[in-house]
Structures are given as structure tokens and as C-alpha cells.
Amino acid sequence: xxxxxxxxxxxxxxxxxxxxxxxxxxxxxxxxxxxxxxxxxxxxxxxxxxxxxxxxxxxxxxxxxxxxxxxxxxxxxxxxxxxxxxxxxxxxxxxxxxxxxxxxxxxxxxxxxxxxxxxxxxxxxxxxxxxxxxxxxxxxxxxxxxxxxxxxxxxxxxxxxxxxxxxxxxxxxxxxxxxxxxxxxxxxxxxxxxxxxxxxxxxxxxxxxxxxxxxxxxxxxxxxxxxxxxxxxxxxxxxxxxxxxxxxxxxxxxxxxxxxxxxxxxxxxxxxxxxxxxxxxxxxxxxxxxxxxxxxxxxxxxxxxxxxxxxxxxxxxxxxxxxxxxxxxxxxxxxxxxxxxxxxxxxxxxxxxxxxxxxxxxxxxxxxxxxxxxxxxxxxxxxxxxxxxxxxxxxxxxxxxxxxxxxxxxxxxxxxxxxxxxxxxxxxxxxxxxxxxxxxxxxxxxxxxxxxxxxxxxxxxxxxxxxxxxxxxxxxxxxxxxxxxxxxxxxxxxxxxxxxxxxxxxxxxxxxxxxxxxxxxxxxxxxxxxxxxx
Length: 534
Hints:
Layout: E1 5-6, E2 8-11, H1 27-40, E3 44-46, H2 54-63, E4 72-78, H3 90-97, E5 102-108, H4 111-117, H5 122-138, E6 142-148, H6 150-156, H7 158-171, E7 175-180, H8 187-201, E8 206-211, H9 218-227, E9 232-235, H10 249-259, E10 262-263, H11 273-284, E11 301-302, H12 305-313, E12 331-332, H13 340-350, H14 359-373, H15 382-393, E13 401-409, E14 420-428, E15 431-439, H16 442-455, E16 465-473, E17 484-491, E18 496-503, H17 506-530
Parallel strand pairs: 1-10, 2-3, 2-9, 3-4, 4-5, 5-6, 6-7, 7-8, 8-9, 11-12
Antiparallel strand pairs: 13-14, 14-15, 16-17, 17-18
Helix pairs in contact: 1-2, 1-11, 5-7, 6-7, 8-9, 12-13, 13-14, 15-17, 16-17
């Protein structure tokens, strides 16, 4: 049993997070996110406002069927309207219809919002808060009260801001959650004001914090609020949301639990943090930000040669925690500054007989620097770098050879949407193979034609899916004559890899990256089959 002080985690991905630009969830998406957050061990999942739209109503109906192990679903809404009684208020009735044991309602803490936005008197607002919380509490609900604009309200009129919290306590709220709604509070303010609330109300209810990132301080303000006595933290696991986003719970959880001595999720679940974040990013249809602390792809990535050499000797030289603690992994980025240590480290995974002082190591370093001078960038192309090393040490054999490829396009598009065509002729295992393909663009058509040519000989090519395609112009000064770099991300459902091609011709660059992708997959298949390095 952990002796660490417990801090409740309240995730608002499905409500506050969904207000971010480009974020839209289906009912099934929401159910899958709830399952992921429950698996991680999040205490509360704010699942939306059941009265705001039919999708949320359908979600709550389906969510009742879920068997959650760790999390409690929370329905969200506002206090009653000023001219309604609680029993007549449609919003409060919809909250009750969700059937959740916990509910979260927000009310006004800033006198300006009361008088100038909802056009109520200060006394009316206090009664709206007290009456709404009391109505829900008497019907068996555990009420988390969100004090909207609390920090702004406290700075403008601290006496009234505190009265709004007293009204929520009088109504029976179990948690007073202080919302830093505009995201403008400085760390000292957040700490001081939270401390004042804890001192006055800490024995009557738990105190929570809800911050936004408009000043880049959402995580810092949340941590300081906890240090000031808050025991409930709201945010979004990946930090997205309206404007510049919400407090990033993945960072807060790791900071509090690994650095500050608090318990946020079950300790054994900490290693699931990165996989769960990746899963939610996938459901949300966004890329997990590489630079995100703890869980990003670059969180434990090393590129400079001296850094890599030190980390290989002892990871603590440049890593604040072992990446395995949060389910992430250490990566070494291959580049012109990576140095001999990284090349040797990677070669060792292929051929342990090669020593660090072998001439081949220096040759590969030189080759990498030459290729990066011409536009290659291997730090984001693990598949192509592995093939480069294999070729250098004689552990590579081509699966096919190109005779030629041709591509052409047609505009306007023909009726079925196909607008490009490709023809390829390959030598595969001594046989000449000619195929053609149609596609939504010349690269797609070339991909289709190559697959047709190879699938008869190598059926596993069917498993390859191109998950991303990026093109970057390397020298804009030469306009259409510029060299381009093409990065292709591929997956077979189990493994993911990235390959690269560089040329002054975008189709040639795409072909080089495609070929590397296919060959990388085929080599890995052979190694898995025979359990040895070829």
C-alpha cells in the first residue's frame, strides 16, 4: 500500500478537450477513450453535457453498459438559470438523466460575469449556486462544483469570490474546483489564491484546480496548486482543447507521481502512460506531439554525438528518469552530429562481431554525413538508415531490380476519382515483370503498380500500409528545380518504420522511399522466419 498522498485526476478530454479545433468524436470514439482512461487509472472522466446534443445523450445511454474498474463517469452542466427553479431547469434535469453518481456543474465566481454577462444580481447568483448544488445533492449526486473564472474573480473581488464557494459548500458540494478559465494567472497568484481557499474551505470539501495554457503555465500552475493543498486536478490527458489547450494531465501525472511524492494513478499503471497517450491520439486522429514531456517520441531522443556517447555509458547522464518508467523508450537519432558511438550501437544490433574501432564504422559515419549534406535526414528515417548500414557491412541483398517506371496524370479527373497512372518493369528473381496501376495521384499510382509486381513473389507486401507521406523542398531559392525530401511512414499492423528518398524529381524521391519501405519489410519477415540476421 502506497504511503504517498492521493491526488484525484479528473480528465476532460471528452468535454473540454473536444472544444479544440479539429477535434470531433463519434460515440464509439468516446467509449474507446473512456476504456483507455479507465485502464490507465484516471479517477474521474468528464464525459460531456447530456443535454447539449443528441450525440452526448446517446453516449451516456451506451456508457451505462460499460464496466469500469477505476474511473467514475461525470456528467457536466451549469447551475440553473436565474429565472428557473431547479426542478424546472432543463439543464439540471438532463444532468440527472445521465445516471452518473458524480456530476460537475459550473457557476460564476467573477462579479463582472454575473452582472454583465448573465445579467443577474450578485445575490441571485449565490442562490443559483446554492440551489443547484443542493437540488442535485438531495437526489443522491456527488457534486463537483466548478468555480468558473475563480482566479480572475478573486483578484477583482475576493470577498464575493469566496461567497460563491460558500454557497456551493452550503448546497453540499464535495469538491470546490477552482477554474483558471482565461489562462492568464501567474504561478505566484495561483499558489497564493489556492492556499487561501484551502485554508478557508479545506475541511469542508476537497479543493481542485483547473487551468488553461494561454500563458504556457497550465502544468506549472496545477503543480503549485497541489503544493498549496489542492487534492483534485482537472485537465486533458494530451493537453489539447479550446484556444491554446488545457493542462496536460500526462505531464502532471508524471511530475506529481515520479518527482513530487504524490499518487495520481496506481503505481503499476505508470508504465502504461505512453501507450495510453498514443492510443488516445490515434482515436482523436492527431499525431502525438513528439516534444511532449515523458510520452513524446522525442522525450528520450538523443542526437548530439557527445550526448549519445554519454547516454550509452550511463543513461542518467542526460535523462531525468528511465523512459521505461512511463512506457516510453530511448532513441538515438542518426545525423551528421551523432558520431561514431551511435553508428556502432546500431551496427551491434546487426552484427556483434564489428568493434567500435572497425574501419567500417568510420566509413558509415562518413557516408551518413555525405548523404545528409545532399538532403537526407536519417533521424526520422529508421528504416532507410538500417538498410544503409546493412549495405555497408554486406548484410543486404536486393529483392528486385528496376528496369524503368513511368507515371502520367490526367486533368480533370475521370469519374471514379483516379487521376494518375503508373507503369513499372522489374526484374524479380530473374523474371521480368511489367505492371500498371491507377491512383489518386502519381505516387499512389506508383505504389499500386509496385505492389502488383511484387505481391506474386512476396505476398507479405499486402500487409504494408503507408500511414503518412511528407514532402519538403530543400532549397526554395531554385524554385521548381529544387531538391525534395520525401518521408514515408509505413506499418504492417505490428511494426512501424520510416523511409526516405531525396532527388530533384519528386517522383524519383518517392520511388526511393517506397522501395526502402518494401525492402525493409521483406528483410524483417525473413529474419522473423529464420530467427537470424541476414
